[in-house]
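Hi everyone,

Forwarding the result from last night's run.
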Amino acid sequence: MKSTLFTKAPAISADRERELLAFKETSGITIENLELLNLAFTHRSFANETNQDVDNNERLEFLGDSVLGMCVADWLFTNLPAKQEGDFSKIKSVVVSEDSLAMVARSLGVDRYLLLGKGEEHTGGRDKKALLADCMEALFAACYLDSGFEAAQQFVMRYLEKQIRSVLEDDYKRDYKTSLQEYMQKRYRKVPTYRLVKKTGPEHDFTFFVEVDVNGTVFGPAQGNNKKEAEQMAAKLAYDQLVKPANS
């Protein structure tokens, strides 16, 4: 299905056209309307600063969120007949998360194609997880509008199926350090601090014990085979006691 929607996308120069065609080839996205593709890369900051009369990718992002959700839900329902609704929800929440989508975006080099305003550029916008994840959703929507649901589903699952299988193999585990930090930044405008309490055992087989301070409340110590793993386990202790109850 060809998109007949009028979109006020930024003008496409010859160099920009080559960039967009290169993204099409490397990503495998099915889309003919380069204006629509360009719009998917257009951040609000660019639209606000340019002297062109252009839109941004936020409407596409809104639609793409639903396209993504449907694609992942359909795959889970079709391929995991032994799982229940609760399992689907847990898996889907990790797969469509900001962390997951940002990881896909980085693998596709999405940061190189973003159109950003000068302010956003100077504050590291190309590496912001939220911005990258939003752009991926906009790309899913652009593919859907241009070529239909089947094409969008193929594009989504080309990259998200790997994420699903990774979540299944990891028993739905999440990055607790990142999740806890995001929770703290929103609630307290602070970040958690980790402290190595001790390490025990022979040099070739240490066990690390770490505790985490969350706004004055200490959780742990938790143990792991390395410092990173112990920090994750300490973050999980805090997350399970603070964040889960707040979200339930």
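The domain at 176-247 is CATH 3.30.160.20 (Double Stranded RNA Binding Domain).

Cheers,
N.
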